[in-house]
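Subject: design request, 147 residues
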């Protein structure tokens, strides 16, 4: 559905918001992966229902390992999306903690909060998020054959 997609350079760009509770781990990494793998196809954002005010240093380190500087991100609340419609809202295992965002499509990913995990398990969650983001971008940016 291209209903809410922005037009950039003649291309439809889908708006995605990744939501978790604190906006310090999962949603931050998902936003980063969407920027990496969806450049020119999606506009990626992240937010938290109760933002922590900081990005977890473990998330910053985990993304640094693959060449992405997450230290430039900041923990943000959902208030910046009040009244704005996005193409896809992805909630990340936060259940009732993540209030509704106006979205053409809603997706729930059951992803464990890696906050207290040791580095190897944190990387496993990071890699799971990357694979889900890649699949989402592929699914939402495929144009019908008639276009």
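Subject: RE: design request

Done. Sequence follows.
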């Amino acid at each position: 559905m291209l209903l809410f997609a922005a037009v950039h350079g003649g291309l439809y760009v889908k708006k995605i918001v990744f939501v978790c509770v604190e906006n310090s781990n999962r949603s931050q990494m998902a936003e980063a992966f969407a920027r990496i793998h969806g450049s020119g196809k999606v506009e990626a954002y992240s937010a938290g229902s109760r933002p922590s005010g900081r990005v977890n240093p473990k998330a910053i380190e985990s993304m640094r390992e693959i060449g992405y500087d997450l230290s430039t991100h900041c923990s943000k609340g959902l208030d910046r999306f009040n009244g704005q419609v996005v193409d896809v809202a992805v909630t990340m295992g936060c259940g009732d903690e993540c209030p509704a965002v106006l979205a053409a499509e809603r997706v729930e990913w059951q992803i464990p909060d890696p906050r207290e995990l040791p580095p190897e398990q944190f990387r496993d969650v990071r890699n799971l998020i990357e694979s889900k983001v890649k699949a989402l971008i592929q699914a939402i940016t495929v144009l019908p054959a008639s276009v």
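Residues 111 and 128 are 8 Å apart (CA to CA).
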